[in-house]
Specification:
The complex is a heterodimer of chains A (51) and B (501). By secondary structure, chain A is mostly helical. Chain A is built from two helices and no strands. Classes of the chains: A mainly alpha (51), B mainly alpha (501).
């Protein structure tokens, strides 16, 4: 594994601009994630963890 | 190597995707872990009907006189003595794991020799870590052992000693590390431990089912955090700020934000990346996991000792790779319980480790689904591939971490036995599962040592590694651990485990 030349591998990788589908993926992930977290936090607020 | 070949290897053996044995093995490490973990669990449960089958397994106590360090777990086997129990444990593990090596199509003779070295060095490190000057916590303990100072690492500080022993071997004796690599299988060991842990945690949770259900809510939040928040941010950072292309950015984001090695390899396969990419990302993840294990539990002890469950959830979220995360949960539990014990507060054991493990297991469950989602987007919209190479739903099951099935089974059976059986049976369950838990501790020790042996720090100085490491450092220390801490606080802030009776 360590014998692989990482520098060579990275140099071989060409720069690629962010595609609209990637922007959508990032945006939707964050959006859904934040909404779900807020919903879960609210749920937790009304039914908090307790022993 | 063709892509499909790599994928089948990767699911079988995450740490050594280049191994030939894994390709043709009739059983994967995941399934082997389920078989081994369940076998230990079932054998332990025989004690419920008064048949003690594994009480001979060795356990170590904090010691100042070496003669008192080792003993058999059950009094029924006290005649064995400490050394007898240790040898019996070694022989039993050697036989069982060698049989496992046969199933994995590994070289059995080489495995047996390597395991012998791994077991004795790892367990010796554990015993040293249990020396009173390292492990004793309370003034009463120090008085008992006749010592005036202690590092107060608790007996589970022995894990750190095993990790350091592995690191020394990896970095100063690389030829020896190479010689024992057949038995250096941290993912196998931790998965066996996690299967057993399901039953152990069930016994703990049975007394507080209300909290156990709250923990499920936290598990769902962990999935949302890791997959939807962390992944998106890290992917953006890797792509936009560091200029990585998609082939590198997706496995890198998965490795940093989800579950280290497993996720990097699953996603690498799903987006049809070249095998070298997730393998290199994995080598980075393992090294950073070691750094996290050595640092985060002590930070948690310093700043979160009065928020034990926040600390547990934090370990499950922030530390990458199953082995390191669950192990960090174990160390954090011992350190925090010790600090509280020194202040006169004695919490029940098991809750911090259980919280860390549950969070980690919940995150693992989703790996296959996330890999499929990304695979679908990549093969249909980014690198459009022919129909036969497009992502298929069956890949979800192929990439599902099977050891979770073992965890769920032992948890369900443990819960049933603790709550659904007559009182005379239920009262024997904790002691029975306690014997299995002794094996869990031994598999933890083997995990720590193995992680150390795999962590050659020279890798970090390899040309080109800096850029990968920079994304990791920036994302992990600039974002992942703090968001994990914040959200752990929202869900568990102010909640403390029950006091020990």
């Amino acid at each position: 594994m360590s014998q692989t030349n990482i520098q060579e591998e990275l140099n071989r990788a060409q720069t690629e601009p962010l595609l609209p589908i990637e922007k959508k993926l990032i945006g939707w992930s964050l959006g859904i994630g934040i909404v779900l977290l807020v919903a879960l936090a609210l749920l937790n607020h009304f039914a908090p963890a307790t022993f | 190597m063709r892509r499909n070949e790599f994928m089948s290897e990767a699911t079988v053996n995450e740490f050594r995707p280049q191994r030939a044995d894994a390709v043709t093995a009739p059983i994967s490490e995941d399934w082997l872990a389920v078989v081994l973990g369940l076998s230990i669990f079932v054998l332990a449960l025989a004690a419920v009907v008064n048949v003690d089958l594994i009480g001979w397994v060795v356990t170590t106590s904090v010691w100042s006189n070496f003669g008192q360090a080792l003993k058999a777990t059950s009094k029924d086997f006290s005649s064995l003595g400490g050394y007898g129990a240790l040898v019996a444990t070694y022989v039993a593990l050697l036989v069982v794991l060698s049989a496992g090596a046969v199933a994995l199509r590994a070289n059995v003779a080489r495995f047996a020799l390597a395991f012998t070295a791994v077991f004795w060095i790892a367990y010796a490190s554990w015993v040293i870590g249990n020396y009173a000057n390292f492990a004793a916590v309370t003034p009463a303990e120090q008085q008992k052992f006749g010592i005036s100072w202690s590092l107060k690492l608790t007996n589970e500080g022995g894990y750190i000693f095993a990790l350091i022993a592995g690191l020394i071997i990896a970095n100063f004796f690389p030829r020896f590390a190479e010689a024992v690599k057949e038995a250096v299988r941290p993912e196998l060991y931790i998965k066996v431990a996690i299967v057993i842990l399901g039953g152990v945690f069930a016994v703990t949770a049975a007394s507080k089912l209300g909290f156990a259900s709250s923990l499920l809510l936290r598990g769902v939040a962990a999935i949302v955090e890791a997959y939807l928040i962390y992944w998106a941010v890290v992917y953006y950072v890797a792509r936009k700020w560091f200029g990585f292309n998609r082939e590198w950015a997706a496995p890198l984001a998965s490795g940093i934000s989800i579950c280290g090695v497993s996720a990097a390899i699953a996603v690498g396969g799903a987006i049809r990346a070249r095998p070298v990419v997730p393998v290199l990302v994995s080598s980075l993840v393992v090294i950073f996991a070691v750094v996290e294990v050595l640092i985060l539990p002590f930070i948690a002890q310093a700043f979160l000792s009065h928020q034990p469950l926040v600390a547990g959830a934090w370990m499950g979220l922030a530390v990458k790779t199953d082995g390191a995360a669950v192990a960090a949960g174990g160390i954090t539990e011992s350190l925090i319980l010790a600090k509280n014990a020194a202040e006169g507060v004695n919490y029940q054991t098991g809750w911090i480790l259980g919280t860390a493990t549950t969070v980690k297991v919940f995150i693992d469950i989703f790996i296959g689904i996330w890999a499929f989602v990304l695979g679908y987007i990549w093969t249909n919209h980014i690198n459009v591939t022919p129909d036969q190479d497009k992502a298929k739903a069956k890949e979800i099951w192929q990439r599902f971490p099977k050891f979770i099935i073992g965890f769920v089974i032992t948890f369900a059976v443990g819960l049933y036995l603790a709550l659904g059986t007559p009182a005379d049976i239920a009262k024997k369950v904790p002691a029975a599962i306690g014997e299995a838990n002794t094996f869990r501790v031994i598999f933890f020790i083997l995990t720590f040592f193995s992680i150390g042996v795999l962590s050659n720090l020279k890798t970090l100085w390899q040309e080109g590694f800096g850029k990968l490491a920079a994304v990791y450092v920036l994302s992990l220390f600039g974002f992942v651990i703090w968001v994990g801490l914040l959200i752990s606080w929202i869900f568990f802030g102010g909640v403390t485990p029950p006091l020990a009776s």
